[in-house]
Every structure is written in structure tokens, then in C-alpha cells.
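[Target chain]
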Amino acid sequence: MRHCSTPFFSALFPLLFGRPPCRELKNLQARASGSDSISELRKALGQFVPDALLGRHTQSGRNRLFTPLVTFWAFLSQILSPQSACRDAVRKAQAWWSLGRRLPVSTNTSAYCQARSRLSDQTLLAIHRQTAQRLECNVPTDSLWLGRRVKVVDGTTCSMPDTAESQKAYPQPGSQKPGCGFPMMKLVGLFCLASGALLEERARNFAGARKPAFSSPLASS
């Protein structure tokens, strides 16, 4: 197949032939999913998540084996690995601790699951903002549309377990009969067109779906 190019009108290339495949993104995903240890995963993605972010917002002074740093990377490796169970994450944590000749970690997954629940929203939000900022900084100028950082809004919905608390916060749509549906959450995200980074997100119930999710999306342009 003949290679198509527009050497004198570079901006027309993606419009005529589409964008080239995101090979760097695919390589990064392959490295992350193929990492068999926490150390390898930190090496692949550590530039986006500095260790300092995982030392903040801790609520306990206890000397835990599953620190926020170990727990986050073990949890991320579990998310990136298909069909991965908690015992696989614990196995990786055991290997990480053995590198420093520290105390052995039990194979029981209870401590790891409890540590996962202790990861604060503040910590995860700080990691998200740091990652989005790094992705934004890595966007080359020639990838911007007319030199502007264009933002795109998209949304979706998700259901959740049918509990009284969820029904109160995110009631099921009015088109469903009471007792025959599930609580429904509406999610709206603000993305960077050039990098694909999720910059902001909002969660609403269907009762407030008509209200603007972002009061001024162009304010930070």
C-alpha cells in the first residue's frame, strides 16, 4: 500500500487519512500489563505518580506492611492484569518486601483488602491531577488544534447495588417501576482532545442531570 502524506500541508494529514496508531500508548500499556512485579510497574509508570503523593493524607501513624505506596502499586497491577485476584497482588507485595530483606508478608489477603479501602479520596485525586498534568505537558505544540488546547465533554451512566443509601443518593430513573430497577449514576467527564487525559469529572443523579456539570469549561483554557 502506497504511503500517503501531505508534506506541504501537515495539518491536512489527520483530516484526510486519520491519526496514526498510538504506538507509544500501546507500548506503555503492554509494559504495564506485562510487569510481573511492583518494581517494574513503578519503573514504567512512576514518572506519572511520584512517591511523595503516596505519603500524603495518611490518617494513621502505625507502621504497616501495606503502606499507601505498596498498596497503590499492588492495586494498580491488579487492575491492569486481566483475571487477577487479590492473592496475585499480595504475591507481588511479598516479592517487593523481600527485595529489601524486610519482614515476610502473610499470604492472607485480608490486610491487603483493608489497606485498599484506606486509600483516601484525596490521595487518588492528587494522583489523577498529577497524571493529567504530566500528560498535558507532554503534548507537542503541533498536535494542538490551531494552537489551542481543545476540551471535549462526554458522559455515560452506570448502575450500582440496590441499597437504600444508593437509591437515596442516585435514585433509579422515573421510567422504571419502583422495586424493579437499580440506582443509576450519571458521569460526565472533561477531556483534553490532544492528550486524551481526563481533566475533570462530575457524578450526578438523574434528577440533577439537566444542571450544567461544568459551570465554565473554557475558564482554564
Observations:
- Confidence is low (pLDDT under 50) at residues 217-221.
- Residues 38 and 73 are 6 Å apart (CA to CA).
